[in-house]
Write a structure and sequence with these properties.
5-stranded parallel beta sheet, ATP-binding, Rossmann fold, PAS, Beta-Lactamase, single chain, ATP binding, AAA_lid_NorR, P-loop_NTPase, 18% strand, alpha/beta, 29 helices
Length: 700
């Protein structure tokens, strides 16, 4: 005779979901009656072999209609994996309300969500009778709800609730229909349902469970399970194990697991009573990851169980986890089209970077602060074969050594005081298959330089406090505004690491060597900050003559400042540069705009004119040649200057050049390096040279 199940719910939508779930598993073997509180109070007596209720609150409403309360079963609920994915995509630390049909049900579901892994956000349970202002926070609902508060618009629907596997098994046990469930592919039915993560020892420790109950529960576990008793005989073999290794349950159960699967270290685990964690094996040509644990209870050995999964599945799972991390910020936003400029310097640099993107070798990007080194790094990643994977960036100079180490390499639980429960993945792991950008690499402490070198050599890392090796496939792009060769000479940077990183060197030109791009950049930043000002010709000329020590970043900051002034035309007096603080009283002719210098530099120029006398053109010649060399990233020595002078028929001797360089150095216009280091023009020297060229003898 068929058994009867009564289902009672608050809403018709939920009632239909539960009905379809149960009907698909028990089919025609079960009579199901449906009751819904949404349609009004239940009037008739509820008579059934089992009554499924959503909560104790619901039970109180129909208690007078139930003669035998021992026939009542309260439902355990969960959500779909799709709904779980929606919640996992929510930003960490988000405060949200969780709305369910009653406060009791809401609290139960919030507890379930925390249990299945939603521990990155704070959920406050509410129900239709909860009062309050919900406008500022997100409200998470199950399916279509007619109870959403009117004063909110931030709503996330995670789909209908579903009956958990434990409730399905309990229905089978209470109705003596467990044999029907055993004939169903319950694992397939529950493939898309998020189930609480039962530990294997917990499942196997349920000694009061029947063999049928255990088989059903083990079907919904994603991994393959192979269990042997103390003598090696296989007693446990779930459906996923069969799909992975290719044998049916009938092929393996009661056979010697140690002989049948010699690749799995069953024998070592039984003899040593020690677990083996995540080793790579091959069975029937398939790469597998296997972990084996002994089954010990009351100091007695009962056997061992192996958890197996395909290596490709493990890789896919890791990629999905990393994809979630990408959504939290580890993603390259910029491409080569975002790099503004038409000057030959920047176009040549972009072309070199594009060629580097096709390679898989390490890149060392050098350039002054503010030139856009990370912008180039992101563009390279987005044009590489790794563009579909994560771009992880860290500033090596922004963190203390201990924190930088834990961020890069990760740590195991208990590795140090304050370590997060469960440990933490390091950035090397997060960047697997993608790109790791190490900004300000020159700031990395020597001890970490050695560990980084090992990662580059071996392509493997070990977490702090850990004992297992983690293989990583990453591309390193490093950047610095320091001279690493000089640091190598003083022991501040490892020579072997430098040559590991500097496989593909990329130098970003400073803004002063690509002044053709300044007006284009001004237009870009003005549009970005939604400004509408125009520059006077004098203001334009000053922008073009300024040295831009902070490069593109400095220019962007100044444009943001000018937009904030909310004026229609920006003139010289509106510019924020310190260079104009001491010249406010001067009357500036438009043709003299680029000749503006500080009063100190003007005095130095006047001294030069007086001291040089008729030889002033010779000093100007030296400054001009040094500036040309600077723009070509070169330094000139005395002999080089002598050769150029002869070519241009400038009558200069080597000793005369030496004396002139010493004078210019004493005035801060050049820097003379010892040996064959050559001479470099300074910003002051360039300002004074520019002043001379534009003023043509202007005396201040």
């Amino acid at each position: 005779m068929k058994k009867k199940l009564a289902i009672l719910c608050y809403s018709n939508g939920t009632l239909e979901i539960y009905y379809e779930q149960i009907q698909s598993l028990f089919q025609d073997n079960l009579i199901i009656e449906k009751y819904c509180l949404e349609n009004g109070p239940i009037q008739k007596e509820i008579v059934a072999d089992l009554i499924l209720l959503p909560s104790f609150d619901a039970f109180e409403k129909v208690r007078h209609l139930i003669k035998k309360v021992d026939k009542v079963l309260f439902a355990d609920r969960t959500i779909s994996k799709g709904g779980l994915d929606k919640m996992m995509d929510i930003e960490e630390g988000t405060e949200a309300f969780f709305l369910d049909e009653s406060m009791e049900m809401s609290k139960q579901m919030v507890s379930t969500l925390y249990e299945i892994g939603v521990d990155h956000m704070n959920l406050t349970p509410i129900c239709p009778t909860t009062e309050g202002n919900f406008k500022e926070k997100m409200i998470i609902v199950l399916g279509k709800s007619s109870n959403i508060p009117l004063n909110t618009t931030n709503i996330l629907n995670i789909g209908n609730s579903l009956l958990d596997i434990n409730t399905i098994i309990e229905i089978g046990v209470r109705l003596d229909y467990l044999h029907i469930l055993n004939r169903q592919n319950i694992g397939k039915s529950y493939k898309e349902i998020a189930t609480a993560n039962y530990g294997l020892s917990r499942i196997l420790g349920m000694t009061n469970m029947s063999e049928g109950q255990l088989d059903i529960l083990l079907q919904v576990i994603d991994d393959g399970l192979i269990g042997i008793d103390a003598k090696g005989s296989i007693f446990l073999y779930n459906e996923n194990a069969g799909e992975i290794v290719g044998y049916t349950r009938e092929d393996v159960v009661h056979r010697d697991g140690i002989l049948l699967f010699p690749q799995i270290p069953f024998k070592d685990v039984l003899e040593n009573l020690r677990s083996v964690r995540e080793i790579l094996i091959k069975i029937n040509g398939v790469d597998l990851i296997v972990s084996v644990d002994p089954i010990v209870h009351s100091e007695r050995l009962y056997g061992a169980v192996a958890i197996i999964r395909r290596f490709s599945d493990a890789e896919s799972q890791q990629h999905r986890l990393r994809a979630k991390v990408i959504g939290k910020g580890h993603k390259a936003k910029y491409n080569f089209g975002d790099i503004v400029g038409e000057s030959e310097n920047i176009k040549k640099t972009i072309e070199i970077a594009k060629r580097m993107a096709r390679s898989n070798s390490s890149i060392l990007i050098t350039g002054e602060s503010g030139t856009g080194k990370e912008l180039f790094a992101q563009a390279i990643h987005n044009n590489s074969k790794r563009r579909n994977f994560q771009f992880v960036a860290i500033n090596c100079g922004a963190l203390p050594e201990s924190l930088l180490e834990s961020e890069l390499f990760g740590y195991e639980e208990g590795a140090f005081t304050g370590a997060r429960k469960g440990g933490k993945s390091g950035l090397f792991e997060l960047a697997h298959n993608g790109t790791l950008f190490l900004d300000e690499i020159g700031e990395m402490p020597p001890s970490l330089q050695m560990r980084l070198l090992r990662v580059l050599q071996e392509r493997e890392v070990m977490r702090l406090g850990g004992d297992s090796i983690i293989n990583v496939d990453i591309r390193i792009i490093a950047a610095t505004n320091k001279n690493l060769k000089e640091m190598m000479a003083t022991g501040g940077f490892r020579e072997d690491l430098y040559y590991r990183l500097n496989v593909l060197p990329l130098k970003i030109p400073p803004l002063r060597s690509r002044k053709k791009d300044i007006e284009t950049l001004v237009d870009r930043f003005r549009a970005e900050f939604r400004g509408s000002f125009v520059l006077s010709q004098m203001a334009k000329d000053v922008l073009l003559s300024y040295n831009w020590k902070g490069n593109v970043r400095e220019l962007k900051n100044y444009i943001e400042y000018l937009v904030s002034l909310e004026i229609k035309e920006v003139d010289v007096k509106d510019l924020p540069f310190e260079i104009f603080e001491e010249v406010e009283g001067n009357i500036l002719l438009e043709e003299d705009a680029e000749a503006i210098v500080s009063s100190e530099e003007r005095n130095i120029y006047n001294d030069l004119k007086e001291d040089a006398g008729k030889d002033l053109p010779k000093y100007i010649f030296i400054l001009e040649e040094l500036e040309k060399a600077f723009l070509s990233n070169k330094r000139l020595g005395r002999r080089s200057l002598l050769t150029i002078a002869k070519q241009k028929k400038m009558f200069l001797g080597e000793q005369e050049i030496r004396n002139m360089l010493l004078y210019l150095e004493s005035k801060g216009m050049v820097e003379v390096y010892k040996g064959r280091g050559g001479t470099l023009i300074t910003d002051r020297g360039k300002n004074i040279l520019n002043y001379y060229a534009k003023s043509k003898g202007f005396n201040g």
